[in-house]
Amino acid sequence: MDIAVVGTGYVGLVVGACLAETGNRVVGGDIDEDKIRGLQAGKIPIYEPGLDRMIERNVAEKRLRFTTDIGAAVLESEVVFIAVGTPPDEDGSADLQHVLAVARVIGQHLTDGTVVITKSTVPVGTARLVRQEIERQTDRAFHVCSNPEFLKEGAAIDDFMRPDRVVCGIESTEVRPVLEELYEPFVRSGNPLIFMDIASAELTKYAANAMLATRISFMNQIAELCEATGADVTVVRKGVGSDPRIGQSFLFAGAGYGGSCFPKDVKALIRTADELGVDLSILKSVHQMNERQKGLLATKVKERFGEDLTGRQFAVWGLSFKPETDDVREAPALTLIEELLAAGASVVAHDPQAVSTVRDLHLGDRIGYGHDAYAACEGSDALIIVTEWLQYRRPDWDVVRGALRSPIVFDGRNLFDPDRMSRAGFSYYSIGRRSVE
Ligand SMILES: NC(=O)c1ccc[n+]([C@@H]2O[C@H](COP(=O)([O-])OP(=O)(O)OC[C@H]3O[C@@H](n4cnc5c(N)ncnc54)[C@H](O)[C@@H]3O)[C@@H](O)[C@H]2O)c1
Question: Which residue among 8, 10, 105, 119 is best mutated to probe the pocket of ligand 1, counting the most ligand atoms within 8 A of its Cβ?
Answer without folding.
Answer: 10
